[in-house]
Amino acid sequence: MLEHLKNTDCGTPASLSEELVTLHIDGREVTVPKGTSLMRAAVDGGIKVPKLCATDSLEPFGSCRLCLVQIEGRKGFPASCTTPAEAGMNVRTQSPQLQELRKGVMELYISDHPLDCLTCSSNGDCELQDMAGVVGLREVRYGMDGANHFKGEAKAAVDTSNPYFNYDPSKCIVCNRCVRACEETQGTFALTISGRGFESRITAGQGDGFMASDCVSCGACVQACPTATLQEKTVVELGQSEHSEITTCAYCGVGCGFKAEMKGEQVVRMVPWKDGKANEGHACVKGRFAWGYATHKDRITQPMIRAKITDPWREVSWEEAIGHAASEFRRIQARHGRDSIGGITSSRCTNEETYLVQKLIRAAFGNNNVDTCARVCHSPTGYGLGQTYGTSAGTQTFKSVEHSDVIMVIGANPTAAHPVFGSRMKKRLRGDARRAGAGLIVIDPREIELVNSPHIKADYHLQLRPGTNVAMITALAHVIVTEGWLADAYIDERCDAKSFAQWKEFVARPENSPEATADITGVAPELVRGAARLYALGSADHPQGRQVNSAIYYGLGVTEHAQGSTMVMGIANLAMATGNVGREGVGVNPLRGQNNVQGSCDMGSFPHELPGYRHISDSITRAEFEGAWGVRLSPEPGLRIPNMFEAALEGSFMGLYCEGEDIVQSDPNTQHVTAALSAMECVVVQDIFLNETAKYAHVFLPGSSFMEKDGTFTNAERRISRVTRLMQPLAGYADWEVTQLLSNALGYPMNYGHPREIMAEIAALTPTFAGVSYEKIERLGSVQWPCNEGTEEAGTSIMHKEKFVRGKGRFIITQYVATDEKVTQRFPLLLTTGRILSQYNVGAQTRRTANSQWHGEDRLEVHPHDAQDRGIRDGDWVGIESRSGQTVLRATVTERIQPGVVYTTFHFPESGANVITTDSSDWATNCPEYKVTAVQVLPVAQPSSWQQGYRRFNDQQLGHLAAAQLEMGGQ
Fold first, then answer.
1. How far is it, in rounded angstroms, from Cα 367 to Cα 370?
2. 807: exposed, middle or buried (C-beta count within 10 Å: 0-12, 13-18, 19+)?
3. pLDDT per position as a tens digit, 154-172
4. Mean pLDDT score of the chain, rounded to an integer?
5. Looking at the DSSP assignment, which residues form a beta bridge with residue 408?
6. Following CA atoms 401, 405, 410, 414 in sequence, which dihedral angle do they give, to the nearest 10 degrees?
7. Buried b vs exposed e over 212-240: b needs ≥16 C-beta within 10 Å?
8. pTM of the shown model
């Protein structure tokens, strides 16, 4: 029953050497890469050596002394985990001497360990228990009555402070695996071993418990622990699982693979999948632990309808709800025209579900009024990379960062927003015994963790003013061009000569120099020049003659600007100019925010593009889809989300189908959004909770969490991974089935039996997905698009290897244009926004977990100078006012933010962060300018008028919901 808990652990990491050595282990000939440990070589030969301190995700440590072996011609008993295999070795892993040594070591361990195996939470999944059996331990000659750590006053209290796992010191064998996991895998360095000799024990932080320490609750220590010392509370409560399924995390764009360990349909724990290509056995607090929202009491599982948003909800059957929604949409179209309704797809739903929604809108609604949340995050990525390289996605795998010599992070905070990749990046930045750490350039208005954290310090932090990204990227290019650091041979072979010549002349102009742009960006010229040289040339100790691998990673701090598309093109220009596209360790890498925001774009969620980024106006492409779908498609691009709002206020857009997105909380200028929704005649929301948008809805269709559906997600590295249904949908239908019911009710038939059939249709109609199938994904673990007959079986790991998708790379001039959001006497500060580790997006999922113990409210970060000028102290309530509105938050006074700039997150609806953001947006894509809002901040004594109104409205809407549920319960 517990076989699924046992995974092959090779004891030490694999060697990357291409040189092979051959040796004999227990008479078997084994050939392994040079540098492989004897322990791992033995596993390759089908032999397992006993171990406790060794695991293949960590560097060898050699402390437990169980893995001793004998080597012919050598004295002693070396540890197999720390001894490298050498050609011609003759190794014995079993002998009477080894048996006695191991048994003696195990006796020492057990003499200071409670013998409560039958009632221990790790029973059935305990390496100490397993090894005691392997070495043949039958008695403990030292007895159990001497000095120990598990009886009476010597037994330390169990630390239960962390909401997700316990720490029981009495069961600790001081193997050091948790400490090493925190250092090597996560890079937080929150754990240490305190005391000496017999008094040695694991300590978190300063010894005040896990919650008071720097621990980020990634779970790496829990995963590494071989006993019940560190144990998930769900395992303590529920016991060991009896089966497991592989699935994909539904949080950020890293797309971590997980092994869901289960009892029936109940998830016991989520274990990061060692074979997951995106995460390789690591996780963060959200994916590892914060999945309880899927069965939270706030889940709505019954469809509801109402005539007006001021009316109480009425719970109805699925048939009535679907019929009512379809009838309303048809009524609106009959009265206001075919283009009077539209829909929004979800970046939290699967590829298959997103594909069906856009198909529903184009085929059943008969228009192209479809958009997605990528509009408000990474639409400039699609435009900018499409213009320069020919495709709308990142160029690398996450693993590629291991080959980088220099890393440039622009407008992103990987350790908070993409923490598993952030840990991988930190590992490369720290370096190891084999290779020095990579150089680091951070371009951000705020001092993010990467700027200065344990064993990591940025070589350059270009702390620019919000809204000046384009001036900065052009200044960096100016240095590279004028100092002669261009990759001339690469440019001649791979790039368009005419556009390059024009770009080169532009960036070389004196007005684009670091000195000339310093007044714009606020960054000292010498820092800009130093950063440009580091990116182009590498560090001073870079091996002579070897090409420098420089990689750029960027986030919403690049795209969510009035010049977001311009900045993406500027980044693409810089990478081409230095030859940093098309191989390992380089590239342009957008860090996507939500789990399937890449997939939602791939699936045709924009009003001008069909799946695969093919324009709706192209008659050949349109004819292909018309033939498959059996309808005529409109050649005219539909409305973007901002256009939908404007049209609603004008009276021409009256119906909306919104699946899995909370536009009221996530879109800018909240009061404008709610006014638009209030003007519509029928808003249909499909979600798992009554989110902020659903409070303005007339029809509520219960959605399903990632645990309740089959499908695929596509992460930021274009990796398509399986999402596996772990339990029946709580409301009876998965999201794709609900969309299918609505389409059928509208008169356009859909008859899919399983999401694999939807993916087959996607593959048949989308050239970049032509080779994608469930069978292949399940066999290989994942695939990366493009995946077709022209790629390897698993798709394309590195884009633009031989040539760019568009042929020749295109340079585009990036003229800096100042944002309309300028500081004034009335609004003298600039507000910028971001995310925090423990919360996710609008918080609908994470707020319904214990993650709120770390971050229970949105706060406003204010520099001490600005705080002093305004009489603001840490923890004070402050009013933040912009030309759009006003809200009130508690202040955090910190030097992380520069003078003249304030910063907040947007995870809690009552905070009203987007009440103050404006309708300023990117010139090419309408992506909102969340990162630059002119504001004033002053102390206040009460909530803003908007917040007071929100509380009244929220109470009213929750009352409507409670009344409907009470009525149904009474019936």
1. 8
2. exposed
3. 788 999 999 999 999 999 9
4. 94
5. 441, 552
6. 40
7. ebebbbbbbbbbbbbbbbbbbbbbbebeb
8. 0.95
